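Step 1: inspect the first sequence and its tokens.
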Amino acid sequence: MITNASFAKELLIWFDQHGRNHLPWQKDRTGYRVWVSEIMLQQTQVITVIPYFERFMARFPTITDLAEAHSDEVLALWTGLGYYSRARNLHASAIEVVEQHQGEMPTSIDDLVSLKGIGRSTAGAIISQAYNDQGVILDGNVKRLLTRLYAIKGWPGQSQIDKQLWEIATKLTPTTRNADYTQAIMDIGATICKPKQPLCVACPMQARCKALAEDQVATIPTPKPKKLIPHKTISVLLIKNKQGQTLLEQRPNTGIWGGLWSLPEFADLKSLQTQLALDGLPTNTQPITPIKHVFSHYKLTIEPHLLVLENTPKKVSEKAKSQWYDTQQLHTIGLATPIKKLLEKI
């Protein structure tokens, strides 16, 4: 039987010996630093996040610094982390904190979840990690741990399963050592109760784990129902002028790579060449090796076509949200990852 007090006590004993307590966002803890780290850690591993977090904090040490920054610079520092709506929401919320909260990070769950990009679990993490108050969290690692401990079947994304897990997480969360507790329950999920090949022999909860007792660890949590992942192919135009500059277009704020800079995109080569002809430009483009990129919900093949111009036509350079960039400028803007790799290769 798992009781509230015994669970927290045993978990914290394990954490004091094996937990992670030297992560960069655990130093000089503030609501802002914890917030940035939690947003970066969404669907991203700790080892990947650390260098991004350190660069981000070096450039934007305060909420005000972030609020006053240009979106291009924010996205440039986020390039490679993916899920770019996180960066846009972080920037927008920083502006709101400065305007509505005098630059001070909110300290209540309600105020936190009112900010873009902050959900119930992220708000709980900020409350507990930054202020050592009782904040309940339920990220992917915690969901996996709890479903196994209680042998809960059914995809955790279902509303009834999610509700059940929130009730359990709330009951288990102690009223003391909250910063350590939330880190501990995330750590045990990430390092012990892993999705594949969990280290059950090293788990302090092994004697209480129903999934382990029933030999169901491999099948719990129930995976999300699979969907056929569609495949899409697009053509992009890598157009350079005589000065070696590359023409880039800024994408809309919504959708894939929202707000990032990318190459002009077309449905296929025919539509690309048609547009070139309409603009009075040469259509003899040179094909480049296609790039394959996988998103969470579809696969993308990018077919680049190179065109080098002797002159810089005004019609192209004055196109809305288009700009010529020198190679040395590319690190100052947010670029779609496969496009950045292509430009670096070229």
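Step 2: inspect the second sequence and its tokens, then contrast the two.
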Amino acid sequence: MPFEITSGKIDKAKKVVFYGPEGVGKSTFASHFPDPLFIDTEGSTTELDVKRYPKPSSWQMLIQEVQEVIQLKNCKTLVIDTADWAEKLCTEFICSKFGKSGVEDFGYGNGYTYIAEEWGRFLNLLQDVIDVANINVVLTAHAIIRKFEQPNEMGAYDRYELKLGKKTTGQTAPITKEWADMVLFANYKIFSIQADEKGKKHKAQGGQRVMYTTHHPCWDAKNRFGLPEELPLDYSAIAYIFGTQSNSQEDIKQSKPVTDQVIANEIEDNKPISELGSEIPPIIEASNETVIPVHETNLPKGLTDLMNQNLVTEEEIKKAVALRGYYPENTPIENYDPDFINGVLIGAWPSVLKMIEEEIREF
């Protein structure tokens, strides 16, 4: 049977990488995309009136939050803010998985290869956000300045790049740029003006924020939409690509208030926490991250967050661990080896959760 041939443009969600120096306004810019939902990996959106998931304390928690977006389709734009802080979680996960204290312990660049492979799987998951849920994905990132020298040319110059894969053997930045439909670089535009009558002295002036959309020797950028090389740092300049105007705060719909009783009823009905709305009452709101207080523990935060998110108790963890013969059931989790907690309970959380749901809760 022959393959079907199609033609014309395909209207689908977009993949955007937006990076720049600290303080240039990356999070604010991302907040104007259509109906954004933030996964705030570094806790930098506390002053923005946006929807956000709890700050992920582990790589597995970040993966679960993205998977929930695909399942629930609870936004029009998923914002990972920032990608370089997400990469830190990825690195910690890989090191725990192989029992290493740092990525350099792998030797010969192997650690960076493992990280790139895991990051590639993460980008594939984000591609599912596009293809399955038809939700835009925005990755914000910090910029880093590197000294760059091209072969067969005189001199070197500073170049802005994504702050991903800090070592030359790191591969996360190239595959992230290849994955994106649009890579935008934001910076402050500085003008040099004459400071004396003879024109021998000049001074820097300006500071207007702009974004660059095409490749330049001094920065990475690209787009597939025929944008001008330089635009003001204003979402309205690219809004037409997403079929929207700027997502101003006045346009954000107010979600229903969530009371303690509503939470209790929803949990009893086994509804996901993310469906409870955005106005979480003070009793379960702590700084910039929302945590459902299933239990208070002295366990590592990465494990506690995963337990809270999936309503898993310490007793269920201990039963699962005992069934596999790791520790007796009466052993406190605090007494588990830290490498076991990080490498097995956190690192292999999907398997742990599946075991609890299929072998523990059914009895």
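Step 3: confirm your contrast with the notes below.
Residues 245-294 have pLDDT under 50 and may be disordered. Residues 15-250 form a domain with the Rossmann fold fold (CATH 3.40.50).
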